[in-house]
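hey m, so remember when u said the tokens were messed up on ur end? i reran from scratch. heres the input so u can diff it against urs
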Amino acid sequence: MRRSQSAMEFIVLASFMLLVILGFFAVTSSKLLESREEGYRKTAEDIANFAYREIEIAKPLNDGYTRIFTMPQAVNGINYTITVIDDRELIVNYLGYEYIKFLPSNVTGNITKGFNKVSKDNGVIFLN
């Protein structure tokens, strides 16, 4: 009788510890997934901010300003898309995560991967 009670207590204790360990792994993997997704969102934001900074540099400068900058073909070996819609929104899509940055009203053109030209003429900033 005593041995069967000890065996039963061991099984209950082992089952409880297994549940605790499974719960720990579930929480850890959930946090890891959230962290990875946040990293993808941050990368999309960084790509957009890189392009937007070039526009911000041109904004206060005099007419005749011209600069050529390069957008990478891939980030961390992963493809992305960058577009300007209606000369108002700069949109970056990286691994399904989209980041939108609103452009000033005096910007026209589009940004592509590779070489891009930003210039200012008559108070208007031209992209490519």
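this time it looks ok to me. The mean pLDDT is 90. if urs says something different then somethings off w ur setup not the seq
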